[in-house]
Amino acid sequence: MYKVLVFAGTVEGRTVAEYLNQHRIPTRVCVATEYGESLLPQGENLIISHDRLTCEQMEELMQEMKDGLVIDATHPYAEIVTENIQKACENTNTKYFRVVRGETSIEDSINRSNVVYVKNIHEAVEYLEETKGNILVTTGSKELSKYTALADYQERIFARVLSLVEVVNSCSKLGIEGKHLICMQGPFSKEMNVALIHQLDISWMVTKESGAAGGFLEKYLAAKDTGCSLVIIGRPKKEEGSSLEECLGYLKDRFDIQESDSPAESRQISLVGIGMGTDDTLTMEAKKALDEAQVIIGAGRMLKQMEEHGKVLYNAYKPEVICQFIKEHPQFHNIAIALSGDVGFYSGAKKLISMIKEEFPQAERKVYCGISSMIYFCGKLELPWDDVKPISLHGLQRNVVGLLKNHPKIFAIVGDESGAANVCKKLVSYGMGDTIVSVGERLSYADEKIVRGSARDFQNIKTDALSVILLENSSKITNIAVHGIPDEEFLRDKVPMTKEEVRSISLSKLQLKEDSVIYDIGAGTGSVSIEMALRSVDGIVYAIEKKETAIDLIRKNKEKFRADNLVVIEGLAPEACVELPVPTHAFIGGSSGNLCEILELLLAKNPKIRVVINCITLETVSEAISGIKALPVTDIDIAQINVAKAKKAGAYHLMMGQNPVYVISFTGNVGDAEE
Q1: What CATH number labels 115-233?
Q2: pLDDT tens-digit profile of 388-423?
Q3: How is 259-323 classified by DSSP, letter by letter?
Q4: What is the CATH number of domain 487-672?
Q5: Strands (E), 322-363
Q6: Of 336, 254, 309, 327, whose CA–CA distance to 20 is shortest?
Q7: How many whole angstroms separate alpha carbon 525 and alpha carbon 523?
Q8: Has domain 258-371 been given CATH number 3.40.1010.10?
Q9: What is the CATH architecture assignment of 4-98?
Q10: What is the pLDDT of residues 255-270, one digit of tens each?
């Protein structure tokens, strides 16, 4: 014997039936058509029928239940059916629960000049009588006869109805047949509606405001894109009831459904890349995943586009909040998490997947890739993206200038309205104002905007927060592939400088990475700082120097070599290093007698740090070795470098020896470092 009687026919009704079946609650589900029955989930706890019932027949079904529950999840326009259900519940003293769907709101920013609101079909016909042009009727076959009041309805009316024999016969009797009769089953995408409007040269489309799940939004957007006018038949009355989520919560409480009743392994959690945010960039498998889910979780902007799926929506983007929601709502066993663009491209999926694995180890996980903003944008620009370096500036600082010297194209997610302008100003300040810049705003939306120009053109541009840029290095300014910039390239004056050959060996010993955080202590002219900044293009170099003349030279060399990730710190080490970020590497070219204190500070900041010291005097070598012995370090290496350079003497060249330099390198002892 069943405990719940569900009147379905909508997405909400199907979701309720699926939930009850999953939790083994005996349920009878009634729909009005065979097609409606075919859409329902099959299960051993469900009895399904497709008969149209009178009020008396409904009462008979209710009397078969003891202390039963009726859930009315019928279509918002099925007024008579709802009235009969309510009456039958009253007569049998059966608990009644109405599930209503939210109305689809039309944004104020959208032009409403092509929208006409009427109270009913009679008013729609009266209005259309005064117009010209073909009419697409999407209000079903039940009241199609009312449109025959139009003087030339057989020429103007095109009716989209269900592909059922009885429906086709009834339309044929009205004289609506042939190309004027479109027999199809929804849901219909915006693209399908657009195609019909163009194919049939439709001037007017008649629809009911049936909510997101009824495909109203797709009709509206299709009319907007094509210039077709929309006649909207307003809802018959403002319904009272509960949302789908409230209904599932009520069922959970009524039948005391516990989390243990929903085995973890039966839950499916899908991470769905939704492309740019519109249906146009949603893959078929992603759309299927959203359609099959009971609840869709995502940020507010994305959820607005998800309304059409007629699901429970939950606004969240932080992994911990998402996981907490899933824990607290065991009634949802098929969960979709909507993520902007592609799940593998600057997405929150990375942290989220890790947390889901930890929190729900037995749940089935699925990942659906989407179209990333980079691929979409490059497609719009008709540019290949195999040589593009993608970065994000959304809450991050990146060395755009340095990256652009290493890569022919840079794609960047901007993150705010001034982000594009800030990048362009930076490029201009380093003499790269000719960089070709493409700016994309609100990609894939109706108000999408793409402009191209130079960095110089866009120094003051303000963009939408949903913006991206593509930079193309037109000046062919590049970095050399290896370290070893000739000495004469640096601005030097009378400030001491680490020579080219010593610099190359020292940097080799330093073992830098692309994202290293480096101290150059006693930076001098900045020659080592510059080379480190060019090598660790995604990292940052802090050049610490006490002499004012040297500070000025470092800044000039920074500008000359476009080393934007070089930060000049005026002061004496170790004091000048105390407040700086934790280093991964350090080069010491001058210590002013404070070498031991500097080494102690470096290892205190990072016990695993990699350090290279250049020594010229024997006293400094002795101090360095003595200091290193007292510290927890490993991989100690000492090399003496003797360099002789050729000098022309008349018709001959003589080798002139330079002062020998000791290069001492070591790594903090990982074994002694605190975990």
Answers
A1: 3.40.50.620
A2: 999 999 877 899 999 998 899 999 999 789 999 999
A3: GGGS-GGG-EEEEEE-BTSSGGG--HHHHHHHHH-SEEEE-HHHHHHHGGG--EEEE--SHHHHH
A4: 3.40.50.150
A5: 334-339
A6: 254
A7: 6
A8: yes
A9: 3-Layer(aba) Sandwich (3.40)
A10: 988 755 455 457 899 9
